[in-house]
Design goal:
Layout (H helix, E strand, L loop, with lengths): L1 H26 L1 H10 L6 H7 L27 H5 L39 H4 L3 H5 L11 H10 L6 H17 L9 H30 L8 E6 L4 H10 L7 E6 L5 H11 L14 H10 L5 H9 L20 E3 L8 E7 L9 H13 L2 E12 L2 H15 L13 E2 L20 H22 L5 H25 L42 E6 L31 E6 L2 H6 L3 H4 L17 H6 L11 E13 L4 H12 L16 E2 L4 E3 L2 E7 L5 E7 L4 H8 L15 E4 L5 H31 L10 H13 L2 H10 L12
Helix pairs in contact: 1-2, 8-9, 9-10, 14-15
Length: 813
């Protein structure tokens, strides 16, 4: 036992000396090397016993290995770690040296030799398949131009009181959340609140849709020369189009129709905003060079001190206050109504198709017919609505009116559909005897009669079997016997007996039966031809009935329904400028509104400390962006020349289920929800060319590139059909039986809602909060007057009474 203890002590002593030795080697290599040379070889006997008998006394130990041609300086490495090529040292002590001769320049397969990307705007897009990149929509964060943001902040919103502006903006958001309809602003304060709250997102939506139209048509081909913008805002679509087309875009005609009878204030603000774009002020840059020389001569005699003073003067952009819009000259013409005789290459409609929810289909049908009359052949129509249920149903109804999918249920593909109401050639139909007819009706009946005769002649030339010939001969003999029997009783029929009363005179022209009309030339069309055809470019990949359309937005208000109704909408992120951040600092716009509260916001039920915390910074989550949803539609009118119309009719007459061209991007499916990413598989919910909502499976087995592209997709992109799919799941649409059940549920819910509403109104009349009378009498009167001025009855009676003073002019001042 004592011997074993002494052995352990000796081992500890040797290990301690060994540890001190390695530490000395690590800290001071030169001194440790001298100590190592003076040591007795017998000192290594214990180490030899631990490492094995293979190590000889004359061999160098592991820590004697040199590094980078150095004589010493590396730590001990055991044989086991050496096998796995792992160094027993800190990462900070490692130094990798690369010889310049061994280094070879490797060029990325996604870049050109000069370093530029082969495709796309960034490295992510460069790694995509060219077809995937073609179906990809714009994902950049939309940025409002700095000059426009400045003029809105300094020259438009600065003229109104911030508290009044926030209050009116909150009312706009509250009405949109409840009624979902955007009303035309009337007063100056309403216009300022509309621009402060809605202009930014509306601009981003219009900018996104116009970029997609430019991509589908072709950047080189997209150059509209006559443009019309329709909306409640300050020419939102025209501002977005000017930014896309560039500073040198000068079309022949640019018109903006601001919806509303009292649109004077909004037109002033539209003029101010448009004046900040260069392509609206090209007249200023057409001044001859002589003026520049005159100004240069004037500045020659200016002293350096005067020059410094001029530089210190405030610039025009720093001006804060109102602007006289009557002195501003822009190229765009601001209209009070729609034109009658003009035609446009591009028409943009921004949330202006529906004004009253109770007249849902009637308003949309009337407005879309008025707009389509103004569209030129080969022109484009862009519709943009809010991304809610009502906005989607509005877009779906306009689409239904234009292409009438219920009349072409068996048709496949995206063949342009006839729009009969806008066509100058109306298809002829057989009229009844008591209806009025014209020359076109008579001509159509003659052509139809000729076609029937030709069909009879073709039937006579057909070959018959022996039994059919015997039956026909027997029928003919029986008719001859019947004719002989009639002639024997009443006598033979003469030629004069066959004439009508009006025949035989000179005022009538008798046409023989063997008369043949000349064949139709290339410059003429058939009687049922139409010269107005419409096709849908985006977002639909088919011309069938929309599988998500319910036909009425009232179904979305059913709270107790079993099915969750989805609708087609897309998102767009936009950067917040300074004026938006300043607007949304208030507690009204930072609170989650309580619709059941008396004020509609729920601020009365919150404590004072809570209200201070809800002040907000205008940047929720420290982000300077916001996201809005929208629904849209891009339609195109086909050319109306004879050759184009005949090609459309030929395609329709030879249409089949296999005629869909998968190489054409207009037939690719649209992704309508965020892709589901699972292990080695991607699920895409798409609006398929078949006219159904389908779930496509894109597994990794289709290929590395296809799987990579599928994982990079987002809602709104097109999935290229040539890249393929593995499996398809077809979703069922809402049947007529379910709609009838929903109609019954809606009626029951409406009755209960009206009953609860009557109870709330009666409670407000009979009860009142005592704190309501604690305020100052002036404050209470001001609040009552403000609520009274907002009512419709007050505005109507004020117009009838013809007040001398218009109180709307003093709102927010």
């Amino acid at each position: 036992m004592l011997a074993r203890t002494s052995i352990l002590r000796s081992r500890r002593f040797v290990l301690s000396r060994y540890a001190n030795l390695t530490y000395g080697l690590r800290t001071n290599a030169t001194s440790s090397l001298k100590k190592l040379q003076n040591l007795d070889p017998s000192t290594y006997d214990f180490i030899k016993h631990e490492l094995g008998n293979d190590v000889k006394a004359t061999e160098a130990l592991p820590f004697d290995k040199i590094r980078h041609s150095e004589t010493f300086g590396q730590l001990v490495v055991s044989e086991r770690l050496k096998e796995y090529k792992q160094l027993n040292e800190d990462q900070s002590d490692k130094h990798v040296r690369i010889q310049e001769d061994d280094f070879e320049d490797e060029i990325s397969p996604y870049r050109n030799p000069d370093g530029s990307l082969k495709q796309g705007d960034n490295s992510e897009e460069a790694r995509l398949h060219p077809l995937t990149l073609e179906g990809r929509v714009d994902r950049n964060v939309t940025v409002l131009p700095t000059e426009i943001a400045k003029v809105i902040n300094k020259n438009i919103l600065s003229t109104s009181r911030p508290d009044k502006l926030r209050e009116r903006a909150a009312n706009i958001f509250k009405s949109l959340s409840s009624d979902q309809i955007l009303l035309a602003p009337e007063s100056a304060l309403d216009c300022d609140a509309h621009i402060a709250s809605l202009f930014l997102q509306n601009y981003s939506h219009a900018h996104h849709v116009l970029l997609e139209l430019q991509k589908r048509v072709g950047k080189d081909k997209f150059n509209p020369q006559s443009v019309l913008d329709i909306g409640h805002g300050p020419a939102t679509g025209m501002v977005a189009l000017n930014e896309i087309m560039g500073n040198e875009w000068v079309p022949e005609e640019k018109d903006v129709y601001v919806v509303g009878r009292s649109n004077y204030e909004m037109k002033k603000r539209a003029k101010i905003i448009l004046s900040r774009q260069l392509n609206e002020n090209l007249v200023e840059y057409e001044v001859p060079d002589e003026n520049e020389d005159i100004e240069g001569n004037k500045n020659e005699g200016v002293s350096p001190e005067e020059d410094v003073l001029e530089k210190e003067k405030p610039e025009v952009d720093d001006y804060v206050g109102p602007v006289d819009a009557s002195k501003i000259q822009i190229k765009t013409k601001l209209r009070d109504s729609l034109p009658v005789s003009k035609r446009y290459d591009l028409i943009m409609v921004n949330q202006a198709l529906l004004t009253r929810e109770y007249s849902f289909s009637r308003d949309i049908d009337t407005n879309i017919h008025m707009i389509l009359k103004l569209l030129k052949p080969n022109g484009h129509l862009v519709l943009v609505e809010r991304g809610n249920a009502l906005g989607f149903e509005t877009i779906a109804r306009a689409r239904q009116v234009m292409i009438r999918p219920e009349s072409y249920q068996n048709e496949r593909g995206k063949i342009p559909r006839p729009y009969i109401k806008g066509s100058s050639l109306k298809p002829q139909k057989l009229k009844k005897e008591d209806q009025l007819i014209d020359d076109n009706d008579i001509k159509y009946e003659e052509e139809l009669f000729k076609q029937l005769e030709d069909e009879d002649f073709e039937d006579e030339d057909l070959e018959f079997t022996e039994d059919e010939k015997i039956a026909a001969q027997f029928k003919e003999e029986s008719l001859l016997d019947f004719e002989k029997e009639i002639n024997s009783k009443y006598g033979e029929v003469k030629e004069e007996d066959l004439k009508f009363e009006y025949e035989g005179g000179d005022e009538y022209e008798v046409v023989p039966l063997d008369f043949e009309e000349p064949p139709l030339s290339q410059s003429t069309l058939n009687a049922d031809s139409v010269d107005y055809h419409i096709s849908i470019i985006a977002p639909c990949s088919h011309h069938g009935k929309c599988p998500l359309q319910l036909g009425d937005p009232k179904y979305y208000k059913i709270s107790s329904h079993k099915h969750r109704f989805n609708f087609c909408s897309f998102n767009k992120t936009v950067e917040r400028p300074k004026y938006t951040m300043e607007l949304k600092k208030g507690r009204r716009l930072a609170t989650k509104w309580d619709k059941t509260a008396e004020d509609g916001f729920g601020l009365d039920n919150l404590l004072r400390n809570s209200l201070k915390k809800l002040g907000g910074t205008g940047r929720p989550g420290s982000n300077n962006t916001e996201t809005g949803s929208f629904s849209y539609l891009i339609a195109q009118r086909s050319p109306n020349d004879v050759e184009s119309i005949k090609n459309i009719e030929y395609e329709r007459s030879h249409n089949s289920s296999t005629d869909i061209d998968e190489q054409d991007p207009k037939n690719w499916p649209r992704i309508i929800s965020h892709p589901g990413k699972v292990k080695k598989n991607v699920k895409l919910t798409v609006s398929a060319p078949s006219g159904k909502i389908e779930i496509w499976q894109i597994p990794k087995s289709l290929g590395k590139q296809v799987y990579h592209d599928a994982r990079k997709l987002a809602r709104g992109d097109l999935w290229p059909s040539p890249l393929g799919k593995k499996g398809v799941i077809v979703k069922n649409s809402l049947s007529d039986e379910k709609k009838e059940k929903l109609e019954a549920i809606l009626k029951t819910q409406k009755k209960s809602f009206l009953k609860e509403q009557r109870k709330k109104d009666w409670k407000k009349v009979t009860t009142a909060d005592s704190t309501y009378f604690d305020d100052d009498i002036v404050t209470m009167a001001d609040s009552i007057a403000s609520s009274l001025e907002m009512t419709k009855k007050y505005k109507q009676q004020g117009k009838k009474a013809k007040f001398d003073v218009d109180l709307k002019k003093y709102e927010g001042k």
